[in-house]
Amino acid sequence: MSKQEVVLISLTINSTICNTMEPWWAWQFTLVTMATLHLSPCRGIEFISDTVINNVVADPRTGRLYVGAVNALYQLSPNMVVEHRIETGPKKDNRQCTPPVTDACEEAVDTDNHNKLLLVHGGKDVLVVCGSVYRGICSLRNLSNVEQLLYFSDTKGEKSYVASAEESVSVVGVMSYFTKDRDNLTVFLVGKGYGSHDSTKLISTRILQDYGDWVVFDSIIEASAVQANPFVLRYLHDFRFAFKDGDFVYFLFSRTLGVQDTKNFTFVSRMCEDDQGYYSYTELQLNCSSSNNKYNKAQAAYVAAPGEALAKNLTDSGQYGSVSATDKVLFVILTSDEDPSNSAMCMYPLRSINRRLVEIIGACYSYNGLINKKAAVYSPYSSKSEELCSNNQDMAERYRCGAEFLPSPLASKAEFALTAEPTLVRRSPMVAVAVAVEMGHAVAFVGTAAGEVLKVHLASQSEVYGRTLGEVSASKVNKNLLLDSSLQHLYITTEKKITKVPVQACHLKTDCHSCVATKDPYCGWCVLEGRCTRKQECSRSSEENTWLWAPDQKCVQIVAFDPPNLSCKTTQQVDISIPSLPRLMPSDSLQCAFNTFVTDAVMATDGQGRVTCSLPHPAAIPPTPKQQDYVSVPVKILVNNRIEVTKGEYKFYNCAATVRKHQNTPCIACVTSQWGCQWNADDHVCSDSDDAVFRPHVVRPQQSDSCPQFESPEPLLIPVGFEIPIGFQGRNLDIYMDKTFSIGTELMKNTEKEVVQEERSKFKFHGYKFSYDKQQEVNVSFHIKDQDTERKIDSTLTVVLYNCSVGREDCSLCKHADTKYQCVWCAASRTCVYRELCPSQQQQQQQCPDPEISDIIPRYGPLNGRISITIKGSNMGIKKEDIKKITVAGVGCVHQQDRYSVSTSVVCEIGPARKVPPFDITPESNNSGAVEIEVEGGRRGKSKVFFTYRDPKPSTVEPSKGPAAGGTVITISGKDLDTATKDDIAVMIAGVPCEVLSFGTNITCKTGRYRGQKVPSDKLSVTVKYGRNTTKDVPASYQYSENPKITDYHPKASFVCGGRRIIVVGNGFDLIQKATLKVQPSSDEFSADDTPTEFVQSALSKNDTVLMFDSPPANSSDSTSLQTFLQLDNVIEKLNDFKYHPDPTFNQLNKNVITETSIIIVTGRGFSKAMTAKEAEAFVGDAPCLVNILQDDKLILDAPSSQPRPSSKRQRRDTTNDLLELVVKFGHGKWPVGKVYYARKDDIPLAIIIPAVIVPMLLFIAVSVYCYRRKSQQAEREYEKVKHQLENLEESVRDRCKKEFTDLMIEMEDHTSDLGEGRIPFLDYKNYTDRNFFLHSKDGANDPMITGRIQIPEVRRAQALNQFSNLLNSKTFLINFIRTCESRPDFNPRSRGYFASLLTVALHGKLEYYTDIMRTLLLQMMDEHVQNKNPKLMLRRSETVVERMLCNWMSICLYQFLRDTAGEPLYKLFKALKHQVEKGPVDAKLKKAKYTLNDTGLLGDDVEYVVLTLQVLVHGEGPDVTPVKVLNCDTITQVKEKIIDQVYRNLPYSQRPKVENVALEWRPGSTGQILSDLDLTSQKEGRWKRLNTLAHYNVRDNATLVLSRVLHTQSFHQHQDNHEEKNALLEDDNTYHLVRPADEIDEVKSKRGSMKDKAMTKAITEIYLTRLLSVKGTLQQFVDDFFRSVLCSGSVVPPAVKYFFDFLDEQALRHDNVDEETLHIWKTNSLPLRYWVNILRNPHFIFDVHVTEVVDASLLVIAQTFMDACTKTEHKLTRESPSNKLLYAKEISTYKKMVDDYYKGIRQMVSVSDQDMNTHLAEVSRQHTDKLNTQAALLQLYQFASKYFDVIIQSLDDDPAAQNKQLTLRLQQVAAALENKSTEL
């Protein structure tokens, strides 16, 4: 079936389901249908395996994929549809056991079967499959159907052990041939490493057929030289690749060279394909990197042609000789032993490999193993010390494939390895490679350990240009990276998934620049089609410039416009130069689009790519933007009105706008603009250049010198606060003759001064007293206006305004100013001013005052000095040489001239403190003093603050230990630590720097990474260094401890909104000071952002073993690229398994009204990806809702019982609005999902009241009124009491329905989640067939075919039974036998069924023959029914032999389908139903339950009960207790059953102890009490005795009970020694459990009272019918799942069903009076009603379980529903219809549609041929026949032959065919042998 067909079927089914089922179920069905096939335009097609995938191979002829996984083998179509699947494990095995593994091997356990090797042999349609079990034995399977096993044998011994039993040992293989005695035999060569229990052969040749003494898989070449056995330690082979080329076979592997050196080296070995003894086996070392062979271990390889471009690069490199485009190249991925995270790809042309191998072989054969006088050859795997090589000329040419007398095997020495330089190097592990050629260029697809596949353009400088489409997996890429046969798609295999993706994604690029930017060799821009395509997809790609190749071509570009620009006030045509424009066809049209203006274009014929277009009308040109003198209009060149070829911008200029930016110089700005504008001085306007205008005052373009203008101001420096006249020049001012001008600037505060004209061209103004104090200098530009017109005339007058006082706060700084400023220090104002502003000469101070010192930094220093002191102050010199002397506390201080700042700052380094006598006393008292400084001119200054020498004394370190990774902030405390400055100190911990963070009375620093090996470290010294000469040891020590370890974290997912509580578990967290959770997008070479955003969340709480975080919100569009890290100080741990998911989506509420007992259902998508019901929150108004159930697409909430207040204040004020907002909160994310309102009690519509309550109530009231209207007031009061009771019950039913539905959904969800942990207890095939065939017999479970108690006769009779078996295999005899028996009146339906079942077992070894007999009999029966005009009655019952044969045939053929598909939903349904029934009270005597689907089995009375949890201790099985949930109203037998169910839940029912064989003891005190159903304490009511319950014994919650086995059923009376007590228990009293039978209640009551109570009981029972609906709703999912599993043709349909339905279709066509309805009935009678109903009613026919009567009653209802769904007739439902019919009335139409679709779907499937069916049946026979008791069946069958012996003899005598075969004689011989019956011979 093609992918399209699968998808079509899937979509059809989904649409059907969606139309007929509730949306939730439709979603579920869609997910199931598309489980293994995922289609996405971006992510390709996916196949997902249940287990880890080991190997993938493709069949080049069909394109099929074969997937070898752990315990499974899949056959996939090219589009990834599963065609066949076969389980290959687990198998009972142990490496110690020699195959075949039998029960004798006690060590054998279920062992996973890892696929080790897959090889396709297309010529013989065979797949070679080798696994890891049974020592690596292989099997042969049909290439067209892998389920068909062609060969397997585990009895051939060691010679058939092909692969390895160890997971870590790699195995490779290649198909080949072998010639033997002129026969060409198919073989395959295997290369494998050495496993401890494997074959020792490194290379072996395995035959695929029996030949002579050889058997299949035999190793046919005994070449002991290439073995590993004696040298296990020396050569650790890791085979990675095997291939053939020419006449040679090659193996690529890595191995070590010797014991001392464990480094791996990569080798390629070669030998001739038909080498009879591996004489030509030679190994060549391959080096990747000539410098140090860094990349030494091969990981994956691929062989492909290099293409023209790469071949030329390889040739030009000079390393490989000449390489052609068609030569083969070996592309190898290698990693480094030194750093496994580094990897590289190297290329080795096979021509170079072969050339080097010929040199090596030739050197050994002919030149004593020497090349250039150096030893080049050695023999691996050999301990021979004698001379290896010889000196025989021409031996290499004569013996190209070696010979027995020539040395072998050979290997090259390291010096003669073939070396290549890496073409690609990555700082991450590469693990797979595949290579294709596109456009003559080689493209490599490289898989990485991170799960992505990179695309690499292989060239002289290979470049990674992208990654394949598809979701990046966390698991590494499998080395089997495959291209499909068309080389258009890539199959990427990761751990459990295969994805088919296209090799290119050109179509995703929608414009030329993004297309070309990919640099993808597959892609190019198809210019005339406007799309990114492959070359062959572009229709005119052969023409020049039509298809632009992405790696080295540029998009079509506009080079120039002519004219290059145009005024916005004119229009004309423009020539556009586009040199790379492709040539157009006559049919093509060309357009230009200027913004929205489109016009036809003309392309010049000169081939220069010139296009002429008309420009838009000026009115269509957009306005010129502000601050701009042009507007850019986008230009597009279009082909055929729709395809954009190229685009650019055309500028329309506006001369009038040129003056906007330069208003002081309008004329100059106009004529110097790039647009060529001219200035009209008369009109004072800028306009387009016009050569026709000749006016005297028009300034032409670029003639700025002709503009009227003012220039050359003098002076250029102007001080603030003083008015200085400014003179300037005027030019070209003729037009302004006799005009007056004014001058101004922004700093003149809107005032303007008059300009005075001194001479014709000289002007001046008297100046202005400027004020400005923001900086020392500022440029001031003046404008000049014509006073009459206010028009600005060009002015280039710019001067510098300066302020002496800015930045010159003291005299020294003032004198340091440049002399051009004429700044002086004015003593009166103590400021620096312009000279003229301090007029008095005395005030202008010539000599600066003495230095003043304002501060010293630091004020404390260590006694040893050698720290820098910064002295702050004023007047401390003008230049550094002015500083003459500095003393600090009397100690000289060395001036640091390079750190001098004029006047304000001096830095010097102090010396040690002075010592005064006595010199041996530390100068504590005389260690402080002032700082003195002397400057040029003998001026001195002394500080008022003192500097103090002192001795810092660090004393403690806190904390005293931290992780070895560092990052711990430690605090050092002590005395006088704030000596010197932060820059002067350094902290070290045993030589490791500690980064100082803060400095003061305490010092804090952050520890560095510990460099030592011992962890935890010794206690390490901490030192603080002050300056260059003082080191202080801290008395306290610091210890590096082990880094914190993370063992687990949960949950492992979050929505991007964040806020989910994350718990991290580990140890060592107490040492951590700062724990943060960080999330950031993964960055790689494809990331646009070099500095990705980081989302951080600090820990909410922590202790030594637990950290708690809220997941940080991650505002990222691509949640899959987010990486999560946990940073614990310096320890960074990547949380690989933590995933971010997109936020969920919510649908609007369907139901907005809330009653007090309502639940709220919220739908959407993606809820369960990162949230659970416990974590989720919801609010109605301001009140929280309990989230009961959270599924991926549904939330079920409990609404608050009373109406809450609105959440917002505005809503609270609006009292008219009853709407409340429903908000769902996941972590930090909040989603309003709709408005809800509470229904008022008096507004509740009657429709809400459940019909099942109101109808009985009304009936009861009517009957009561009619019956009691004349009764006494007392009777009336009784009636009112009952009426009131009913009203209360009506109100409570709604509560009960809601509560029970919610509780049951929660419990059953927990139950089904636990179910997956245990295995489903399927019956084995024999027990399954025994129960299906013989459990219906008159003896039931005691039938001899089930018990096996049949005495098989002695040998002679056994031989006679075999003869009888041969008779049954005669079709003539068997048909006669069956007809004769059926003709006998005493051969009743039970006998016929039993006979058919015996026949099924007897013929099980030949099911093909059995099927043929069944078909023959069916055809005869069909003809009879059709001729009798009643075809619809066929197959309705099982009253004939053939009908029972059909039932058995279906049972046989559907067994595997039950195990694989339908069994699990059926078991879940059974367990859910059992769990549901046992959840409430069950009356042990009446067999009625509170929770059931069957109204007749409904427990009507409201029994009060409490759920108890018992702690059960099993006697003799250890101290562990098992908690068991029971009810206090359960009988002791019921309690035992529940305890056994729970304690022995992992055992099938048949292996559990029986209830009667166990005793239950309760020990409330010092003595124990045996609990039993009846004892002397049992309650009595008249002659009724009540069964004991837990409540009777007063057993409490959490009580401990002891379960013990007993020897006989009465042992529980062992404590009741009194004989009379025992007799009392055995009295024949009537017993009851919960309810006494209704007709026996209180016989002493009056007849009147009795009638009244019966009416009450009846009414109350009817009310409880609503429980049926509750139970049905709870179980609906399980019922639907089972129906879907057996009625879904979209998934797996057993071949037998298709085969038989096709048979019925054929017969219907053969008969005229068989319509569609009749055919539907036939199919229904043959499969659903004949088989599925039987299995549904009897789960114990397929499972090892016990079905109680109460559960059976509910199964009956579901089975009846299934039967109703399969009928064509419509069911007319009325109020009188049975409850079980009403219960599923709504769903019946849906189920009927499913049945119809099932039949239609099967009809559309591909037919199952007779051959295919026979093959399938033969396989079933082979697998199971030996398990069945065929001899017993034959003996039982013979009993029928014996009973009707004479009649059968007569029938055979009358049949000519029987006479010819002497069947009568043969039967008589059998009779004589078996029972000495007279044969009249």
Largest sheet: 8 strands, mixed
- DSSP helix count? 35
Radius of gyration: 50 Å
Q: Helical amount among residues, as a percent range?
A: 10-25%
Q: Which strand order spans the largest sheet, edge to edge or round the barrel? A: 54-53-58-59-50-52-56-55
Strand fraction equals 25-35%
What does the overall shape look like? globular
What's the end-to-end separation, in Å? Answer: 61 Å
In the predicted model, the low-confidence regions spanning at least 5 consecutive residues are: 1-42, 228-233, 1211-1216, 1275-1294, 1313-1318, 1609-1624, 1639-1661
Find the count of extended strands (DSSP E, 2+ residues).
106
- Kindly name the structural category: alpha+beta
Oligomerization category of the chains in this entry: single chain
Mean pLDDT: 84
Characteristics:
single chain, 1881 residues, alpha+beta, eight-stranded mixed β-sheet, globular, disordered N terminus
